[in-house]
Every structure is written in structure tokens, then in C-alpha cells.
Amino acid sequence: MVTNRSDVSPNWIDISVPLREGMVVSRSDIKVQIDRRHSIERGDRANNSSIHMGVHVGTHMDAPRHVFAGGKSIDQMPLDSGIGPARVIEIIDNVSIKAEELKQCKIKRGDRILFKTRNSQRHWQNDTFESSDYIYITRDAARFLADTAVRLIGIDYLSVGGAAEDHDGLPDTHQILLGAEIWILEGIDLSGINAGNYNLVCLPLKLTQTDGSPVRAALQPIL
Questions:
Q1: How far is CA 158 from CA 53, 80, 127, 188, 202, in A?
Q2: Which residues contact 131 (CB under 8 A, 6 or more apart)?
Q3: Tens-digit pLDDT string for the chain (223 aa)
Q4: How is the chain split into domains, by residue range?
């Protein structure tokens, strides 16, 4: 549940990236298409639009079914996984998120952790996917998070995993985290967010038997 305290800010900060045509998508996803099917300007009684996009575009959540055939689907995510206290940790490493750095952060069981990296300042202004130049979570960091049994992790670009680790035949970051039923929030923009404690609201669409979903994510500072 969202914290009911007197020391929270009344202001919520949107950390979602805008969904628009031409926006950056990962190599495996299709480009966003938004079509105005009916238009008042063309004489229709109402505007009515359609969208064509993948479920892993923009700010989105990954379910275990993303990498496991029998894994939980996005509609099976407990609501409280995406609602409640969260902590933004600013990563110093300029290449990747490693266990060595995380071990200094006093991460605890059940935490919701959002990682702020140089991705937020550097990549959201570019509509081309930076496949080899974004900060990602290494396998050792993913195992540390799985062993710690955090509830949710978020990262400020389109994938928690690095390109090199995705193709060497070993369990990758997605498999380690989702195998531990840690729900993954990808594609957040933390450029205007300081490290610290927040309330998080982040809910996927109720897409049945699906491996992921777009979300609207927001943070409320805890003062």
C-alpha cells in the first residue's frame, strides 16, 4: 500500500516516457503506430484512435512469462508489487550495475528498487536504440538481488540485461530476476529524480496470459 504518512510530498512525479510514433524501441520490438480512425475534423462525431505496438515498448513491466513458457503472466502480478514504498539508488559505475556496488546499498528483502544511471540523462533524447552503450544489470548483480529477495526492480532504459550476456547460452539477467519472481520495470525516466525514498505507483494493463505490459509509473517523494 502507498504510505499514509505526514512526511510525504503532495506532488507525484511522472517517471514514464511518452508513447509516440518514432520513439526508440529495442531491436526486437516493432515501432509504435498511433492512428486516428475517426476524426471530428473529418466530420465524424467523435475522435477514436488505435495503437499498434509491442508490450515491451516505452515504460513497461516484464512478467516471468517473458522468458519462461510456464511463467506467471502480467495479469497475475500482485497489485502490491507495483504499489508502495520504493527506493531510488543512483549508480556510480559508468558501465554496468554490479553486485559489488549494490552490496554497499543496504538492500533488504521485499524492497522495491529503482536504479538511476547515466541512461536517464543520455538516452531518452535519442530515437535510435543504444544497443551497446547503456547501463545494464550484470548477472552477479541479478543473483545478488535474487538472493536478497527484493520485490521489484526498475531501470532507466529498455532492458535490464546487456547485449553480450543475452547470447552466450547462460542464464541471463531477465531469467535470474524473473526466475526469482522479481517483477521488472523497464523504460523509466529518472532524469528529474534524486536518490532517496518514495512512494511508487506502477500498474500494468490486465492483459491475460501476456508476457508484459505498458505502464504509467509515478513517484511521490517521502520527505
A1: 14, 23, 12, 8, 16
A2: 26, 27, 163
A3: 565 555 766 899 999 999 999 999 998 899 999 999 999 999 999 999 999 999 999 999 999 999 999 999 999 999 999 999 999 999 999 999 999 999 999 999 999 999 999 999 888 888 999 888 899 999 999 999 999 999 999 999 999 998 766 566 678 999 999 999 999 999 999 999 999 999 999 999 999 999 999 999 999 999 8
A4: 13-18+54-221
HSE-CB for 18 with a 13 A CA cutoff: 7
* Given the residues 66, 123, 167, 174, the one annotated as active site: 66
List the one residue out of 214, 218, 219 whose CA is nearest residue 20: 214
Domain covering 13-18+54-221 assigned CATH 3.50.30.50 in the classification:
yes
8-state DSSP, 118: T
Q: Please, is 222 exposed, middle or buried when counting C-beta atoms within 10 Å of its C-beta (0-12, 13-18, 19+)?
A: middle
C-alpha cell at 35: 492512428
- Is the CB of residue 186 less than 8 Å from the CB of residue 158? yes
Neighbours of 127 (CB within 10 A): 11
- What is the distance between the alpha carbons of residues 77 and 150, in angstroms, rounded to a whole number? 15
- What is the enclosing helix (H) or strand (E) of 153? strand 152-155
123 is catalytic: no
d(CA 130, CA 122): 10
